Amino acid sequence: NAGVMQNPRHLVRRRGQEARLRCSPMKGHSHVYWYRQLPEEGLKFMVYLQKENIIDESGMPKERFSAEFPKEGPSILRIQQVVRGDSAAYFCASSPRVNTEAFFGQGTRLTVV
Amino acid sequence: RKEVEQDPGPFNVPEGATVAFNCTYSNSASQSFFWYRQDCRKEPKLLMSVYSSGNEDGRFTAQLNRASQYISLLIRDSKLSDSATYLCVVTLTGNQFYFGTGTSLTVIP
Fold first, then answer.
1. Chain A interface residues facing chain B, Cβ-Cβ under 8 Å?
2. Rounded mean pLDDT of A82-89?
């Protein structure tokens, strides 16, 4: 059973471009979470999704950021018109049921130049 | 007020020492509790779940005190490989995972 897979591992974007981060949860997991971690800071919740539904997006900036988890395929975190402040590690986690442990992918490190 | 609060440390302890971390949570409706460990620039990894009755896994013991709303992690006989950041995690009814900012541990030879 493969773990949570994130790609790309590293992503460089120029200011104003779009960044697309992908997350394939563990097999059998229907709950997906996205977190952002700035250098020397803790994990900040962004969004929680189940298949085809956004359950909680309270941690996601209202503008430029969006997330989806379609019926088929990976979850996507999209950042439009990236700015330098978006540079961070973005981690995805998945869990099989509510209130059970979540497992993390290796993260995508986004650098905006 | 933050959902989860941890002492950031750093804790610097010699090999073989016993070290304890505490974490407090603000919402009495919190349902599940976990400790994760994160090595520098890597993904968090589940260390152990925390149950009301307390649980032990080798050198690691976790305790939950619902009345006082805190969680603890005890590491006995510290190893160099225990050096990491330890994250306290709490879930609420909406299944959102709240992470503390982490406690840094360095085990010194």
1. 31, 33, 35, 41-43, 45, 48, 55-56, 89, 91, 93, 95, 98-107
2. 96
